[in-house]
Design goal:
Layout lengths: L8 E5 L4 H12 L3 E6 L10 H5 L3 E5 L5 H8 L4 E4 L9 H4 L1 H21 L3 E2 L1
Parallel strand pairs: 1-2, 1-4, 2-3, 4-5
Helix pairs in contact: 3-5
Length: 123
Amino acid sequence: MISFWENKRTLVTGGASFIGSHLVDRLVELNARVRVVDDLSSGRIENIQNHIDQRHIDFVLGDLREEKIAYSALKNIDYVFHLAADHGGRGYVDRHQAACAVNLMLDGIVFRTASLSGVSKIV
């Protein structure tokens, strides 16, 4: 049976993170064409290394706050799972307000670039 995700060009931002890497695992199982972009500030390459080694995914090491990276990562993509963010545990928002403001900038760049690139859906 062919899944909806079969050959869908899909980007997972923050795809080397714990949650992101599990999403990547599932998308690979469903035969999506997966690209991951991560700056590895909190993600770990080990979480997706097997997929990289087996050429199941295209991995981009980069910071999506750089528009050049964002345009490259979103080129020829249909669906985006946007998980990239500066994050922490309980109380993080109260103690790291500037970092959380940077997330708004990151989101704006990703959403704008996705729109300009013709992405069908962003989650």
